[in-house]
Each structure stands twice: as C-alpha cells, then as structure tokens.
Amino acid sequence: QVTLRESGPALVKPTQTLTLTCTFSGFSLTTTGMCVTWVRQPTGKALEWLALIDWDDDKYYSTSLKTRLTVSRDTSKNQVVLTLTNLDPVDTATYFCARSVAAPGMYYFDYWGQGARVTVSS
Amino acid sequence: EIVMTQSPATLSVSPGERATLSCRASQSVSSNLAWYQQKPGQAPRVLIYGASTRATGIPARFSGSGSGTEFTLTISSLQSEDFAVYYCQQYDDWPPEKAFGQGTKVEIK
Question: Which residue of A49, A107, A111, A112 to mutate against B (max B Cβ within 10 Å)?
C-alpha cells in the first residue's frame, strides 16, 4: 500500500525558508522509475508543479522558482525534502507530494499526500 | 513548453445529467494525458490516465477520450459525489512543468 504524508510548519514569516518533508511508504525511491514530485495550490487556484526527484537522484525544478527551490532525498528514511527560500505571502498554499512512475504511459501522479497548508505572514 | 487549457471554467449540471469537460494542449501530447478529481480540502485523485484508461476503482460513468491536442472527460450521469474540480495533466513533456490545466469546476445546477 502506497502512502505519502507531508509535514512542516503551518506558518512561516516572509523572507524565511520553508522546509517540507514528504514521508512515504509502499515503494522505494531507489527502484528504477520511481519519482516524487512536489505540487502546490493556493486556495481556490490551480495546481502548480514545483519540483521532482527521481530514482537516480536526478532533480528537476520549475523554471520560475528554480533559484529558490531545492529537493533532496533520504532513502534510508523514505523521505523527500523540499526547501523554498526567501518566502513571500504569494507562496501561501497547500503543498502536496505525489508519486509517479517514469515508464512509458505511466508518468502521471498515481498517489498523493493529503497536503500541508502553509501560510506566509508576519 | 506545453500549455494545457481547460473549458469551461465552471459547468453547472443537474444530478443525473451528463457532463462533458474539455482539455486542449498547445501541441500534441499523444495519449499522455491524465484527469484528476479534487474535492474541497482533499488531494487530487487520478481518474483517467493514458487519455482513456480508468484508474483502479474509478466508476464506469467516468470516461476519457481524445489524443493529440484535444481531450474530453465525460461523466455519464452525475452523482452527488461527483461535484468537484477536475484537472487535466499532460505527461508527454518531462519534467511536467506547466503540466496542469486551470481546472473545471462542476457544480450543482
């Protein structure tokens, strides 16, 4: 059974750094094809893809946010960590992690965490 | 980059009626398209992948069609639990930046 769960602070001040952890089970991020992605969603708005890390420890970032984003993994703990620096109130959103499988026809996001609501405010 | 455009933004439908949602890609994504349902306060849930394959446990009233640049999600007879926001997502372009459409909200008429 695949599960993912996001954790991190609910409130962060502007200019600070946000660190979110995605803890997963039911798969290994060292298995060929496995990927974990971060997606965020401001209240009432659409989903925005942020970053992805794959089984080979390759990392991909949103072009518009890549100078502020870092994604990393701890395979021994089955965790993926997302950091977002220099926060602004526009970064207020629910942050989701999701799994995908890098195989032909299978790159969609088949399992999602429940999301972590983050508010950026002084 | 591939841009996904969904229409309409809001669809008002009576329970039991058919709902037809559209998604257009700015360039061909072959059949590499998924549809997600999202209810308030919940994570998205995959309904359809490969443009037309229902994910595990998804009722048969949900169907997807299309390929290339034009895609459709049809809900044949809307149930109360189907009122939600629906997103399309292309995965032909990797990594999937700008992968999601803006969503279609299906509301009760």
Answer: A107
Per-residue pLDDT in tens (0 to 9) along chain B, 109 residues: 899 999 999 999 999 999 999 999 999 999 999 999 999 999 999 999 999 999 999 999 999 999 999 999 999 999 999 999 999 999 998 888 878 999 999 998 8
Say yes or no for a CB contact (<8 Å) between A47 and B46. no
For A56, B22, B43, B82, the CA distances from B62, given in Å and listed in that order, are 35, 14, 19, 10
Q: What is the spatial distance between Cα B59 and Cα B4, in angstroms, rounded to a whole number? A: 25
For A110, the closest chain B residue by CA position comes to B46
Cβ atoms B91, B13 nearer than 8 A: no
CA B34 to CA A44: how far, in whole Å? Answer: 21
Q: Which two tokens stand for residue A72?
A: 């990393």
Residue whose entry in the numeric block shows the structure tokens 């629910």: A94
Note whether B96 contacts A96, CB cutoff 8 Å: no
Take residue B26 and report the two structure tokens written for it: 């700015």
Q: B98 to chain A: which residues are within 8 Å by CB? A: 49
Q: In angstroms, rounded to a whole number, what is the distance separating the alpha carbons of residues A67 and A8?
A: 21
Q: Give contacts of B101 with chain A, Cβ < 8 Å.
A: 46
Q: Do the chains contact at B32 and A107, CB–CB below 8 Å?
A: yes
